[in-house]
Every structure is written in structure tokens, then in C-alpha cells.
Amino acid sequence: MSEIFAGVTTSGETRLIGEVAQGAACGCFCRACGSPLVAKQGDVLSWHFAHVAKQENPECYVGALNLIRRLAIEDILGNAVLNLPECHVTIRRRSGLGHSDAKLVWQPEFERWVDFSMDAPKGATVARIRLVDGGVAELSVEATESSISALPVAVGDTGMIACRFPIPAPQHLRTFEAAMAQIRATAAWQWIRVPAGAAQVRHAIEQLDAQDRLEAARIDKLAHQRAVEAGSRWAGIAKRNRAGEAFLRPRQAPGIPPTSGGEEGAGDLLPGRSPGCTLTFYKLPGEKLWVRYMRADKRYVVIPFPGHPWVGWENDLPPAVGRYDPELQAYVLDDVFRGMEALAELSSTVKSGRSLAEFISDPCQD
Ligand SMILES: [Zn+2]
Fold first, then answer.
1. Directed axis angle between helix 199-242 and helix 336-346, to 10°?
2. CB of 360 closer than 8 Å to CB of 263
3. How far is the CA of 54 from the centre of ligand 1 (A)?
4. Helices of type H across 114-260
5. Rounded to the nearest whole angstrom, what is the distance from the C-alpha of residue 19 to the centroid of ligand 1?
6. Can you tell me whether residue 186 is helix, strand or coil?
7. With contact defined as beta carbons under 8 Å apart, do 321 and 339 qualify?
8. How far is CA 137 from CA 35, 118, 161, 196, 352, in A?
9. In three state form, how does the secondary structure of 306-364 look?
10. What residues does each domain of the chain span?
11. Is 270 exposed, middle or buried (0-12, 13-18, 19+ CB in 10 A)?
């Protein structure tokens, strides 16, 4: 479909093909090239305008499309109150345990038009709308030849609504009323950006924040419980070890001063560690000692005790614990609880603390 269905009169008014006299008497000109038009209103072909001199260009059809878009914009802006589409948005928050989603649906209320520009080009803002809750939304209006599918929704300071409508078929493009009825019936209204200031969005973000804090507290509590549970086992092993060398005493001490400080002064022994986070130590059969900690990016990782890796450690832990990440050179616990449980089950000893030094010195001190 690429026939011209609209022209302009000498006084600049838009006329559709069914609204003019037949033939050269139509008195219309091409909006794009300015050439005089003749109206073809036959029985066989769909009604259309033709250029008198037949020098029609693709731009001429685009000009007609712009006219219909302009009429749609006028029609929309002519509403004193606009029925806005519902807001549907999912706010996703990433966290140590994956992510949490808040699905929101609400009905924003139109208050008034703030400003508008009838001749805004395709893709530009046609008008700005003041919402009852104080937010502002921009409106774009597009005529489209492709089918209309839902667009992704984001959250932004200023909202954005798209009104998209399919170009009506030729039989609906004969009069303004028929064209508008068709456009109103087929237009798809959708929020592209929902205003971040909307109460629903602010409330959901507050709830996600609270959930984050709760989750962090739960992980801390679980780590603490593990440490307490392991306490008695730990004391027993420590007692047995006291006569000889504690298994945690480094056999050689590359990079770890045996008596002083700890990891703070010894370089990046726990890469990416979140400052001050709890360390948890797991001793597995074969004198394999692992350290679990939280990274600054909120991911939990497990590595061999710094300075004491063994050949093949990258393949030592089962998938239930986590997956080995070659970039981090650590196991990443995608599911923190499941990973901790699986590690604890494999371990003869579990102990928590704040620094590596606590596990180099006499382990039964606390
Ligand atoms: Zn033309």
C-alpha cells in the first residue's frame, strides 16, 4: 500500500480522498512536493490521489502519512482528559542470592496537558502530560506499517507513553471520521518509561531495600549458627592438635607473616573481599582447608586457604557447593544457603572469624 490518500487545499487544510470532488476538481496539492493532485474515485482501484504530471516520489506517500499522523495528534490533544494506559513494570533488584522482583500495576491519572508541539517529527515528544501524583510523562505518537508488539518498560525520572497505530487500510482512509474511528480502535497505548517518583515505585524500592537488609541479616545469622555448632567439634580437634602442630598452622608461610596482623598487611590474599565481612573456614578430608567470604560485589566465593592451594583444587568441590569461576579463581556460590549446607556436610570442621590470623594462631583460643 503506497497510494496517496490525503492532500492539502490552497488554504492549507487536510483533505482525505473521500472528502473532495472527483478528478482535477479536488483542488488539492501534494503535501510533499506541492504538485497539483487529481482524485481517483473509481470502482476498481482503491480511491487515491495521483499527481497530475505523474512525477510522484516516495516522499509524496510519506507526506500523506505525516498528514494522517498529524490528524491523529490533533485528535489526541483535543481530549480535555486522556485515559492513560495502566502502568505495568517489574522492578528487579540483584543481590547475593540472585535477584528479587517486584511486579507493579497501577492506574496513573491524567491532570492536564503541560505543553505540546503538533508538528513534532516522528520519534519526538508530541506533548507533555502532568499526572495527578505530580509526575510528568512525555507522549509520542507513531503511525506504523509493521505489526505492533509490546515494548520493554523502564523506570525514569520523566515518564514516557507511546501511542502507536497501524496505518488504516485504504477503505478506512476516505474520510477524516472513518480514519479517526479506525485509528482510535486500533491504537496501542503503552508506557515505555514509568515515572520513578510514582508512589508505587518508591514503595516497591523501599520494600526491596528492606528485603535486602533482612537477607543480609539471615546470611550473617546462619554463618554464626554454623560457627557455634562447629564450636564443640572444633574444640575437640584443637585439643588433639595441641600436642603437635595445629593443622591450620601453615607448613610454610609464603606471604603470611606467622604472628603479625593478618591479611590486611599481606597483600590481596582474599581478592575482592567486602571489608570486614565474616570469614568461614571449612576443613575437608585430606587436610584441605577452604575459606568462604563475601566479595564487595555481594557474591560469595570459596577458595583454598591463602598460600595453601593443592593440585586440582579447582575440581574438588561438587556442583552443590557452587561453580568454579576461572576469572575469579574461586568457587562462586550462586545459591548461598545451599552452598553453605553442602560445604558444611563435607567438612570435619567449620569455623568463622574476621581475619586469617585467627586461624594461623592457636585455633582453640576462642
Ligand atoms: Zn508529490
1. 10
2. no
3. 9
4. 176-186, 199-242
5. 19
6. helix
7. yes
8. 39, 17, 7, 11, 52
9. CCCCCCCHHHCCCCCCCEEECCCCEEEECCHHHHHHHHHHHCCEEEEECCCHHHHCCHH
10. 6-65, 87-202, 214-365
11. buried
Query: Is the per-residue pLDDT at 68 higher than 80?
Result: yes
Laid out side by side, the sheet with 28-29 consists of 14-16, 6-9, 28-29
Q: 51's torsion region: left (phi>0), alpha (psi -120 to 50) or beta?
A: beta
Between helix 176-186 and helix 58-77 the angle, nearest 10°, is 70
Q: How far is the CA of 249 from the centre of ligand 1 (A)?
A: 89
pLDDT at 262: 43
Query: Closest Cα partner for 123 from 145, 108, 138?
Result: 138
Task: Give me 362's grid cell.
Answer: 592457636
Mean pLDDT over 333-343 rounds to: 85
C-beta neighbour count of 307 within 10 angstroms: 16
What is the grid cell recorded at 360? 594461623
- The residue with greater pLDDT, 225 or 136, is 136
Range in 70-84, 90-104, 157-171 with the lowest mean pLDDT = 90-104
Spacing, Cα 40 to ligand 1 middle (Å): 15
How far does the centroid of ligand 1 lie from the alpha carbon of residue 60, in Å?
4
Percent of the chain with pLDDT over 70: 87
Summarised one tens digit per residue, pLDDT across range 189-242 is 999 999 988 998 989 888 888 888 888 888 888 888 877 777 656 666 556 555
One-letter amino acid at 4 equals: I
Instruction: Write out pLDDT tens, residues 245-267.
Output: 445 544 444 554 444 334 444 45
